[in-house]
Amino acid sequence: MLPLCKFYRYLIYRLYHFRNDTPIFNTIATLTIVHWFQLLNIFYVVDEFTSYKIWNSIFSPSKFNPMIVILFGILNFILLYNKKKWKSYDEEFKNESPKERKRGLIIVLSYLIGTIILSFVLVIAIGEYKASLK
How many other CB atoms are there within 10 angstroms of residue 13's CB atom? Predict the structure, then answer.
């Protein structure tokens, strides 16, 4: 289990309590998706601005295997999930006021949605930048 900063502890707390049907799966799945988009952003930027061509070698339709994402999710589970730690997050944040709760929800949603939107904006911005160089 990795030591986590306060924002990530709060993110896990908020995701865990978002829906109560399968909170561990929902939390790990959401974090896996967000981390996957962040990893894709890094690979895309490296691919576009360096001589390393990671994107085409890993993510071409003929080479991409969905098992990569599943393994990434398993890695997230191993690194992030700890029942005792997650219970301590409950203790840490259970006394937040309604105002803090609303502000925290806005920050968490901004982070989650912003990460995914950033991926699309990044592709467009780099495409425009490269087109302007021609």
Answer: 22
Q: Are 115 and 39 in contact (CB under 8 A)?
A: no
pLDDT 10s digits, 111-130: 999 999 998 999 899 989 98
**Which domain, by its residues, includes 33?**
10-129
- Count of the separate structural domains present in the chain: 1
- Entry field: residues in the chain: 134
Could you tell me if residue 56 is inside a domain? yes
pLDDT per residue as tens digits for the range 63-100 = 667 788 888 899 989 988 988 888 899 899 989 999 99
Residue 134 lies in a domain: no
pTM recorded for the entire structure:
0.81
1, part of any domain: no
Q: How far apart are CA 76 and CA 15, in angstroms?
A: 14
2 in any annotated domain: no
